[in-house]
Specification:
The structure holds two protein chains of two kinds. Chain A is an all-alpha fold. Chain A is 73% helix and 0% strand. Chain A has one domain: MetI-like (MetI-like fold). In chain A, helix 1 packs across helix 13. The longest helix of chain A has 35 residues. Chain B has two domains: 47 residues, no CATH class; 166 residues, MetI-like fold (Orthogonal Bundle), CATH 1.10.3720.10. The two termini of chain B are 30 Å apart.
Chain lengths: 295, 276
């Protein structure tokens, strides 16, 4: 670059510098290092790490606990978004209606999104606790019924976890749809009245297609957010009972940070990264294409 | 539109929705009413009103949790991080959006590629980096970690700056204003809607952060409110009449923030989420 241009560009480069340094140190460097570690038997302490090829990746895919926690993350990461989407759209439609208390209702449904996920876990523990101190079991006992296992039930724990997750995100996502509903031009609806379309057809042919942009954003936030979730499962079930709600995020931390199996955990976290990247890119591509087809 | 009337059907819908709201808030209602009851009364009538209410639980909670210290820690970490995110994010986004050089184009792409990297993928090396920089267990370390949120800020700002016409900046230049002055006086006020959205969401994320704080700030003296609750969990676990008021106290600042910012939070989704 010639000197006078460099002088002209210098202030702008300076503007980018802080963000560049922070991001490079905290995101890019560690990601590359994780990638390198994943091909070694590094344990975090010994200075003599050896290159062991794809051994860690083979080990990740053949270790029961890891594969299991990957499966859990996938179940949690896809079922929750599906349920939230199925509930958030009707909720947004209702909250966009003519009810007198709709502003209050919006605030109520949004409210759980403000609470830290850790606390959401603790609060629901009071309710779903298997001990008779828990709200549900306490009420059941008083009614003379038998106590339930609730969070301690290996067949249902994941279900409860998903339920709690839906509780604390549905209002937020309803608001994303709500924002989108408010920019649908009313002429579309007026025209459909002329054509004598019923409410179901109006929803199918106008509302739902026009909500496509909100859906792209909402579904992306939901899937990535739930795949990356750590706090809520940690606080609600701590991965249990057994390992039925252990997420890949928790396994990465126990293996890599607590157990110091750095190489092994790095392979795991790199697989996790690639998984998120593929899911996000496919989802965005599919849903953007859908947006274009519909508009 | 001709549908604006309040019909009987709307009324029924409204009733149903209000019932649904009531069910929706049961967990929070249960938490709050329980804090005014003795341990025995919590078990005896879990959903009943506290009669007579007692403040004893709160007195005990304040004794065990050094609330004001933790509140101060959370406030310090959150406010400094948010300021850094806004300043660094907007400055970088301005350069990337306005300078049409190949280097800036590359930087724009560079900031985009790391956007999808989950923090868990970076954790293990991050430990060593933070250790080398001597930033573990320090306020500065937490602020540094959270300031990485400027990547998301760049993304939002950049999209918005593109929609702002350049005329004003050009005339400022002709008047002899330098790049920083132009940015600060002309551009920064114009991108205020994004700044508001970013401040609100980052306050919520950083204040509520658990994972990074859990791994990089273990000192009880420097603990944030969220961390303090986690640290004490062994202590409170079996005494719900103590744990519940601790939770309510730790939740209170965020609830107040929500009540004050409600319109902006729900409205912020309009400006941020749809265009992004």
């Amino acid at each position: 670059m010639p000197a006078h241009r460099l002088k002209k560009e210098a202030p702008y480069l300076l503007f980018v510098l802080p963000a560049f340094l922070i991001y490079t140190t905290l995101t890019i460097l560690p990601t590359l290092t994780t990638f390198l570690y994943s091909f070694t038997n590094y344990d975090g302490l010994s200075p003599h790490a050896r290159f062991i090829g794809i051994m860690n990746y083979v080990k990740v895919m053949t270790t029961g606990n890891v594969v299991n926690s990957l499966k859990n993350s996938i179940v949690y990461g896809f079922v929750t978004p599906l349920l939230v989407t199925l509930l958030a759209i009707p909720l947004a439609l209702v909250l966009n209606g003519r009810m007198r208390t709709r502003n209050m209702q919006r605030s109520i449904f949004f409210f759980p999104s403000v609470i830290s996920a850790l606390f959401v876990g603790y609060i629901w523990n009071f309710i779903l606790s298997p001990s008779s101190q828990g709200l549900i079991n306490g009420l059941l006992e008083k009614a003379g019924a038998k106590k339930l296992l609730l969070l301690a039930d290996p067949h249902q724990a994941m279900g409860y976890l998903i339920l709690v997750s839906v509780w604390c995100t549905v209002g937020w996502h309803a608001c994303i749809y709500l924002a989108n509903l408010q920019v649908i031009p009313t002429e579309y609806y007026e025209a459909s009245y002329m054509d004598g379309a019923g409410p179901f057809n109006r929803f199918r042919h106008i509302t739902l297609p026009m909500l496509a942009p909100a859906m792209t954003t909402s579904v992306m936030l939901l899937i990535t957010g739930n795949l990356k979730a750590f706090d809520l499962p940690f606080a609600l079930t701590n991965g249990g009972p057994g390992y039925v709600t252990t997420m890949i995020t928790q396994t990465i931390i126990t293996e890599g940070v607590s157990a110091n199996r750095v190489g092994f955990a790095s392979a795991m976290s790199f697989i996790f990264f690639v998984m998120i990247m593929i899911v996000t890119m496919v989802q965005l591509r599919v849903m953007r294409a859908r947006e274009e087809n519909l508009s | 539109m001709k549908l604006r009337r309040y019909t009987p059907r709307t009324f029924i819908l409204e009733l149903i929705m209000l019932c649904l709201c009531a069910v929706f808030v049961i967990p929070l209602y249960y938490l709050v009413v329980s804090t005014f009851k003795s341990q025995a009364a919590i078990i005896q009538s879990p959903l009943g009103l506290p009669l007579p209410p007692t403040l004893d639980n709160y007195r005990r909670a304040l004794e065990v949790m050094s609330f004001f210290r933790n509140f101060g820690n959370s406030t310090l970490i959150t406010s400094v991080s948010v300021v850094l995110i806004v300043v660094f994010g907007s400055l970088a986004a301005y350069s990337i959006a306005r300078r049409k050089t190949p280097l800036m184009a590359f930087l724009g792409f560079y900031f985009l590629i790391g956007f999808m990297v989950p923090v868990q993928t970076t954790l293990i090396p991050l430990f060593r980096i933070m250790k080398t920089l001597d930033l573990i267990n320090r306020y500065g370390g937490m602020i540094f970690l959270h300031s990485n949120g400027c990547v998301f800020a760049i993304l939002l700002y950049r999209g918005f700056i593109r929609t702002v016409p350049m005329d004003l900046e050009e005339s400022a230049f002709l008047d002899g204003a330098g790049p920083f002055r132009t940015f600060w006086r002309i551009v920064f006020p114009l991108i205020q809607p994004i700044t508001a959205t970013l401040i609100i969401f980052n306050v919520m994320w950083i204040w509520n952060d658990f994972l990074l704080t859990y791994l990089f700030l273990s000192s009880t003296k420097k603990a944030t409110l969220i961390m303090q609750v986690y640290n004490g969990i062994g202590l409170y676990m079996n005494d719900w009449s103590l744990m519940m008021p601790v939770l309510v106290l730790a939740l209170a600042p965020m609830v107040i923030f929500y009540l004050l910012m409600q319109k902006r939070i729900i409205g912020g989704l309009t400006s941020g989420a749809i265009k992004g």
